[in-house]
Structures are given as structure tokens and as C-alpha cells.
Amino acid sequence: MRLQFILGEIGGGLRRNLSMVVSVILVTFVSLTFVGAAGMLQLQINQMKGYWYDKVQVAIFLCGEGSTAAGCASGPVTAEQQDNVRTLLESPAVAQYINDFQFESKDDAYKHFKEQFSNSPIVDSVTPDQLPASFRINMKDPEKYQIISETFASQPGVETVIDQRQVLERLFSVMNAASLVAVIIAGVMTVCAILLIATTIRLSAFSRRRETGIMRLVGASKTVIQLPFILEGVIAAVIGAALASGTLWAVAHFFLGEYLSKQYPDTAFISPAQTLLLAPALVGLGVVLAGTSSLLTLRRYLRV
Amino acid sequence: MIRFENVTKVYDQKARPALDSVSLEIDRGEFAFLVGASGSGKSTFLRLVLKEDRATSGTVYVAGQNVANISSWRVPRLRRGIGVVFQDFRLLPQKNVFANVAFAMQVIGKSRSVIRDTVPEVLKTVGLEGKEKRMPHELSGGEQQRVAIARAVVNRPGILLADEPTGNLDPTTSMGIMGVLDKINQNGTTVVMATHDDDIVNEMRKRVVELKNGRVIRDEARALYTSMIPVVGQSRRLKDASGRDDAADPRGETVRDQAGEGRL
Known about the structure:
- By secondary structure, chain A is α+β, with helices and mostly antiparallel strands.
- Helix content of chain A is 70%, strand content 8%.
- Chain A has 2 domains: 2-53 and 169-301, no CATH class; 54-164, Alpha-Beta Plaits.
- By secondary structure, chain B is an alpha/beta fold.
- Chain B has helices at 42-49, 75-80, 97-106, 112-125, 141-153, 171-186, 198-204, 237-241; strands spanning 2-9, 19-26, 31-35, 57-62, 65-66, 82-86, 159-163, 190-195, 207-212, 215-220.
- Chain B has a 6-stranded mixed β-sheet with strand order 6-7-8-3-9-10, with helices on both faces. Chain B has a 4-stranded antiparallel β-sheet with strand order 2-1-4-5, with helices on one face.
- The interface between A and B is medium-sized, with 18 and 26 residues.
């Protein structure tokens, strides 16, 4: 009976305050979407770290046709220079930092290139000769890149030494910045949401002051009086959180899954299922947000 | 049922107290009028009984309990034992008569079947049989007040507080309301009614407690709105301070101080 009564009260409150409730839903929706976007970016970063850090290596590119680097003044790398590099890699001084290494010939490079850019017209204009041969080194500790770089950069026949991780780090720092921006926007929107929920609850309490006054007088408990108001805010916030979760899922599914993953087939994107892991967190956040702000509002504006 | 011991209530330190060292006892099953000009402290008295306000000093006992010792989460239980009726009825305009009365039971978690049984019974007591489906705006003022009374007593409180319940009603309707209150009182409910309505007080011949400037200046059984007994000495109020320990019933046919002039 009491439950049914409370549900009835909530229904009435939601109906009477429909426009405010809709605005609460939208504001929580937007703010939680940004929270979720930040979360998604972090998931994506972790995903890419996991995927790349195993694969990413230090690459020693050898001089090819027309290389302009200082080490390539004597033309393309010779077999002797190439052997020297290999010997150096196998020497104990260097080998202690390395798990293993592979030689990638011009033809291998061309093959990988074709795979990576299979749906791009650039493939047709590239020949194996244009791609440099390289040693791909898998480091024991990626942080020790500097040692490899110093050792090999000045070797004859070496065009350049590249730490591929650094390329990724740059990407990650962009993504981190983006997620920071998302968090800031989410923060501002969350303040909005809190204030809006507080205002809504206040209006709701005001429009039902007759009822609550009578409830007080006949000895209704604090819970019975306050719960409908709190649940009103919480329900609106949960709907907003559900919308936000749906939006994130849609972004993961349609934008990442169908669009970006075709554009960048060699990149590991998070799956839509992973974004659903964020959903409970978003709903929880929405509930806490709405619950606390309505509770604090009621404490001020609804005497019990 | 209700006992005030030297209760003082100060709203504003600069102004005189709303209640000034009031001692008073209203027994179970009694019917008492609280009379006095506006600002004499009648409403403050009722608010203190309901624990809407806290007494500045002194002690308020309701049903044997010192209300100052009732923790805030137990206040609802206190209020379940007290029905309240107001001058402006305070019905819910979008609910019909039955729903208005049922509301008081719903919010304290009474079951649907109990509500279905009790509400018509109470409506009958207040003389509103067959009007369950009416909306408040379809009722006369007297009928609306009957609904309000039904709502106040539907949970069978031991005390009914009425704050000028006939203030908005014509004399004939008022007498009808008084009949309802009297009936409720005869069923064992203590009734305390604050009023300005001298006709009603004179008609009913119940106990009258007169307040002036926050002090009890008269407390008579079976009394009239205006005291028939001439003014006597000024010092009788001291008796109030000493509490209820007088051998004689303090509600006896005594006159408290400074009655008379200025009261009319």
C-alpha cells in the first residue's frame, strides 16, 4: 500500500513537472555522456597500449635509394653495413636490452604496406624500392630506447632510428588531452545538473506543499514524505544516464566499429560491449548526483 | 493529556514572549476552548503541542511524554496521536472527499482494506454520508470543514486540535461543526479548540481558557466567552507558577488575575 502510494505520488510529481523533468533528463544525459566519453577515451588508450606496446618496437631504418640523411651519404646500405648492424645487435652490450629482433626487407616492408593500406589508392604508386629495409627490435624495457638510438644512429648505412612508442605517446597525449576536456565539460555540466535537479525538486516541493503539509500533520514519516521527491530526481537522472549509455554504445558501434575501424584497420578500437561496462558507472553516478542534490534541497525546503 | 509547565515561548528577543510562563493541564477526554485576542498565544500553544516549535523554557507534556525529549524521527508518531483542523480546511482540491480522508491513512501506511472500511464510517460520523465522490469545490464551507475533521480523526488520535475551525463559517453551519466536534469528544477524544466565536463558546458551556498577551488570565469550567465573575486580586497568577499541585482542581471556577477590562 505504502509502496503503491509512493509510486502514485512519484507519477503525479513527474507529470506535473514534466518540462523540468525533461530538462533534468537532458542535462544529466549530456553531462554523463561527456563523463562516459572521457571514460571511453581512457579505455581506448588502455586498449591501444595493450595492443601496441607488445608490438611496438624500435625500428632501425637502413638507407634506401635517395635517402638524404647524413649516414646515407654513401648511397643505399650495403650488405656489409647491414651485417655490421646485425652483429652489433647480437653483441652482448646491446643484446642485454633486447628481447629479439627481426630484419624486415624491402619486400617485407612492401607486403606490410600493402596490407595496411589495402583500401587506399596509394598502394599502386609505391614500389618495394621506395620502402626502406629495417631492423625491428623488441625491447626488454621500452624506456631504454635512448641506448639503441645512440648506438645505431651513427652507424654507416643507418638512415634513422625511430622509437615507434614515441609516435604512439604523442597520440596518447592528444587523447588524454581530449579526455581531460571531456572531463572538464562533464564537470561543468554536472554542476548544471545538480543545480537543475535542486531547482526541480524545489519547485516540486513547492507545488505539493499542501500535500506535504497534511502529511506532516497526520504523522507521515520522513521517508514517506521525502522519498517521492528524491525518487523523482533519481528517476530523471537514471533515464538521462541510460540515454548517455545508449549514446556511447552507438558511438562505439557506429562510429568506431563501422567507420573508424575501416579507416584504420590496424588500430584496435574498443568494442561496443566494452562501453556497456561504463553504463553501470554512469547510472550509479546519476543516482548519487540526483539523490544527494535532492536530499540537500529537501532538507532546506521541505520541513518534516 | 496535555500539560504545560511554566512554558514560555519567545519568537523575538525584543518583543514580548508569545507565551509567558503558561501552566495548564487538559485532561483526557476534555473539551477546552482557547480564547483570546489575536496574538494572545493561542496558535503558539497549538504549535507547541504539535512540536512544530520548541518551547523557550518550561516543559510541554503530550500524552505523558515530554515533547522536548521526542527525537525528530519520532515526531511523526507524536503527530499521529493528534488530529488538527484549521480555519481554511486545507483539503486537497484535486482529490474527492473519500480520497482526502483516505490520504491521511495512506501516508501512514494503512492497508487498502482498512481504509475502505474506516473512511465511510468516519464520514458518517461527521455527517457526510453519500458524499464520498464529491470534489471539495462542490461542497459548502461547512461540508468542507467536516471533511477536514474526518481527515483529522480518521486515524483515531487521542487529541484533536482545532484552530478557529468555524472562523470561515456562518453561525448555523458553525453550530453543526460544533455538534461534530462534540460527538468526537464524547467518543473519548480530547478536543482543544482555539476560537474567537463567542456564540459558540457561550452555547457549548465547556471549559474556557483565556489567554492574553501570552498569559492565562482565566480558566473556567462550563464557562462563557466573557467572564461572568468580577475581577479579583492581581496575584492569582502566581498559582500558575507553582504548578498543578494545588489541592483544588486549578480548572475550577476560579478567575485568574487581571481579567475584565480590555478583553472585550
